[in-house]
Amino acid sequence: MEYFNFFIYSFTSLFIIMNPIGLAPLFYMWTVNTSEREIIYILKRTAVVVVLTLLIFSFFGRYIFDFFGITIDSFKVIGGLLILKISWDMLHAKMSKIKQTQREKEEMSQLEDIAVVPLGIPLLAGPGSITTTIILMEHCKGIWEKLIVVLSIILATGVSILILYISEKIVMALKTSGIYAIVRIMGLILGAISIEIMWSGLVGLMSSSGIVK
After folding, report:
1. 96: closest CA among 28, 10, 1, 23?
2. Transmembrane stretches, by residue range (predicted)?
3. Is 7 exposed, middle or buried (0-12, 13-18, 19+ CB in 10 A)?
4. What is the pTM (predicted TM-score) of this model?
5. Looking at residue 62, what is its pLDDT?
6. At a CB cut-off of 8 Å and minimum separation 6, what does 104 contact?
């Protein structure tokens, strides 16, 4: 049951922060005149980019911390703030500026291949997703927990890709108001998760400094 609960937590955290439902209208707009074969090709490439990016950071994030002298607790605090910012944007039903800058949006309109940028990075595998995978991996106490994180990355990416594949059906069925409502609910859940991450980091920092025993 403990492993199952950790899987649900890991998968839910990653899936919500990837926010494929919120991206569905955007992806539909980008590919409205694109053939199904080309859409499948784009999404396959995107899936590979997202999974590889998150796996690399999840396994090598610790070495990056050690190189710069960063503790996991301090990273939890700033990472939690970053995720909180994204959740705040979701509550207001808008794309987070952390994920994609205005310049990147303008450049995107001139790109034929959106699989890597901006769809793969930074929309699905953005700072929030990367932060989440690193923190999840740091929670792992053994090989099984690490495998759960890997599985969560693959499944969250897979489900996100599937949602983008049926983006036209989602847009037609839910309309703008329905999509915004779902995004707001997901933002609320993500906000609660970000608070838990920040609190865990603050407690760790206070404990290591002797403020709390």
Report:
1. 23
2. 6-30, 42-65, 114-137, 143-166, 178-199
3. middle
4. 0.84
5. 84
6. 117, 118, 122
CA angle 12, 20, 183 (to 5 degrees): 75
CA 59, CA 73: separation in Å to the nearest integer?
A: 17
93 conformational bin, left if phi > 0, alpha if psi -120 to 50, beta if neither: left
Q: What CA–CA distances, in Å, run from 49 to 18, 42, 81, 114?
A: 14, 11, 25, 11
Copy the structure tokens of residue 176.
Answer: 């703008």
Classify each residue of 130-162 as buried b or exposed e, where b means 16 or more C-beta atoms within 10 Å of its C-beta. Answer: bbbbbbbbbbbeeeebbebbbebbbebbeebbe
Output the furthest CA–CA distance in the chain (Å, rounded): 61
Phi, psi of 98 (to 5 degrees): -65, -35
- Tell me the Cα Rg of the chain: 18
Distance CA 157, CA 178 (A): 23
Euclidean distance between CA atoms 113 and 3, whole angstroms: 39
AA identity, residue 85: K
Q: For the segment 50-80, what is each residue's pLDDT rounded down to a tens digit?
A: 999 999 999 999 888 889 998 889 989 988 8
Digit-coded pLDDT (tens) for 173-206: 998 889 989 989 999 999 999 999 999 999 999 9
CA angle 172, 36, 179 (to 5 degrees): 25
